[in-house]
Design a protein that fits this description.
- This protein is mostly helical.
- The protein is built from 27 helices and no strands.
- The chain is elongated.
- The N terminus is likely disordered.
């Protein structure tokens, strides 16, 4: 151990003897395994002071044996069970000093990462990133993939805050793949955390269908592994998915399941986010008084913690407009000043973090890739080729970032145009005479012709718009059985019953949007009701299956084409 570290360790050792001097005789002879089990029993009751007798005994046992590794884990646990910022940081420092005595790069990296996580708990992103980068430096020659992926996860969280959503998603999908299907509890926890953040990134990129699938999987996995805290994280995420699907009542229910746990455990960022989407749901339900309460709670949390993410900035814009309309100038001015505070803090953070994350992390990774390529070649010709590849990777990396959004828009536009072209060529009513030779053997020809005539009338009368339309109901109405009806639809409509009904409904809505301007002002929820769907999510999924597009995008394109003056 270096002399400087030894001196610091001695100081911390002496100071901590005062803090942890309450070791009782009843615990002095207990094994570390026993003490760890007792400590872990308090993970859902972290504010219970009883936990400290076990932490104290664990730390004192390590000191008596000069076991620096165990001492490190003791201080790391103490930081976890402490809520006060200064004490958390003191324990994190003690953990760093203790681990320096092990001369184990992996443990030292873990200590740096843990201190970064401590700063992240207070959303001090500058210090968080600095310690993550120190951890990455310690692991340069390590084979510890678990820790390396933890650091990729941590830095991806910073990128998520900076709104580099594509890059963040790449990081989270990488860590999700690594931690998946591992039985170790630490791996399982990181797997669930990665899934949650992957869902967040997909929501930010407006990939709402993929986000919903990711978050539902996360909830199922949390229940499977008994991870109660992660379960509530995914209830929050699913509530946000509900909001984006215009299922506002469901969004409020799911998010309000999660908020109490977030509040009890000091997860203020997620508590803020929960209140934000509850407030927006109430606004969508035209209940602004209820929304106001939740927006004000976000402001209280900002006051207490000095942090608000860029995503929730519109909280203050709404409060400013609200009090302007109420003609309460003092409150309007108050919230203007609060918004300026938020913008100032985020602007300072963003400049610093953007430089560090790209200059010191991404550039370092590209440099390492270049060096690895150079080692593969024995002479200057191959060296030049390696350098060219490295430069190409760098150029491609930055070019890809700028082109990704444009490609996605072009793909969506192509799908939109192809669907409209298909629609123009669509033959709505098949010729019975031309299809008679396809009659299923088990159905008499006269019954088939009767069914096709009835289906034609069913379509012309728009009876498919009835939300109660089901196969059994329609079979009874046609005075036939479900089997005959199903076979006729399979043969002549070339789909199953649900696909047939969904196709009719979606094409009906598309016709309305193309021909009747007033429907372009409808919400997705309102259009789903017009089409006869039970929920807007079911409508959105059916729309995607039929057109290859989400209704939001289709509606946006129709508005641009039909409402832009020529």
């Amino acid at each position: 151990m270096r002399l400087h570290d030894l001196y610091l360790f001695s100081v911390v050792f002496c100071l901590s003897a005062v803090v942890f001097g309450q070791k009782t005789d009843s615990l002095s002879d207990k094994s570390n395994r026993y003490l760890v089990e007792k400590i872990e029993n308090f993970q859902f009751d972290r504010s219970n002071p009883l936990v400290w007798s076990y932490i104290s005994a664990y730390i004192n046992n390590a000191k008596e044996k000069n076991d620096f590794e165990t001492l490190y884990y003791g201080y790391k646990g103490a930081a976890y069970y402490t809520f006060e910022k200064e004490k958390k940081l003191q324990y994190a420092d003690s953990a760093l000093i203790a681990v320096s005595g092990t001369e184990n790069p992996d443990l030292i990296a873990d200590a740096y990462y843990s201190k970064g996580r401590t700063y992240y708990g207070f959303r001090d992103y500058k210090e968080t990133l600095d310690y993550y980068l120190k951890a990455a430096g310690e692991l340069e020659d390590s084979e510890n993939k678990y820790l390396k992926n933890k650091i990729i996860y941590g830095i991806s969280v910073v990128k998520l805050y900076l709104m580099y959503y594509d890059e963040a998603l790449d990081g989270f999908t990488q860590t999700t793949r690594y931690y998946k299907n591992k039985d170790n509890p630490d791996h399982i926890l990181m797997y669930l955390r990665s899934l949650f953040r992957e869902g967040e990134a997909r929501q930010a990129l407006k990939e709402y269908g993929s986000a919903a699938e990711t978050n539902l999987l996360g909830l199922q996995e949390s229940l499977k592994h008994g991870e109660k805290i992660q379960e509530q994280y995914f209830n929050l995420a699913i509530g946000i998915d509900d909001y984006h699907a215009n299922e506002y009542a469901s969004a409020i229910r799911n998010i309000q399941k999660a908020i109490p746990l977030m509040s009890e455990n000091g997860y203020f960022e997620m508590e803020q986010k929960g209140h934000f989407y509850v407030a927006k749901s109430y606004l969508a339900l035209t209940q602004p008084d209820k929304a106001l309460t939740h927006f004000q709670r976000i402001d209280s949390l900002f006051t207490a913690n000095g942090y608000l993410s860029n995503e929730l900035r519109s909280t203050y814009e709404w409060l400013i407009d609200h009090y302007k309309n109420e003609n309460e100038k003092d409150k309007q001015l108050y919230y203007i000043n609060r918004l300026l505070e938020v913008d100032k803090a985020n602007a300072e953070n963003n400049r610093y973090l953007a430089y560090k994350v790209h200059k010191e992390y991404d550039t370092q990774r590209l440099t390492e890739e270049k060096e690895r390529l150079e080692k593969r070649f024995a002479n200057w010709k191959y060296y030049a080729l390696g350098l060219l590849i490295a430069l190409s990777i760098t150029a491609a990396y930055f070019f890809n970032r700028s082109q990704k959004a444009e490609r996605k828009n072009k793909e969506l536009r192509k799908k939109y145009e192809e669907f409209l072209l298909r629609k123009k060529k669509m033959i709505v009513n098949p010729d019975i005479e031309n299809t008679r030779k396809k009659v299923p053997k088990e159905i008499p020809v006269e019954i088939v012709e009767d069914l096709l005539n009835r289906l034609e009338a069913f379509e012309e009368n728009k009876e498919f718009l009835n939300p109660k339309t089901e196969q059994r109901y329609l079979a009874e109405k046609f005075k036939t059985n479900s089997t005959y009806l199903s076979k006729a639809i399979n043969t002549y409509k070339e789909t199953n019953f649900n696909g047939y009904i969904n196709k009719l409904r979606i094409n009906y809505i598309v016709d309305l949007l193309l021909k009747v301007p007033k429907y372009r002002a409808y919400t997705i929820e309102a259009l789903s009701k017009v089409a006869g769907f039970a929920t807007s999510r079911h409508f959105s999924d059916a729309f995607l299956a039929e057109t290859g597009l989400r209704p939001n995008y289709f509606l946006e394109q129709i508005k641009k084409e039909k409402e832009t003056p020529v």
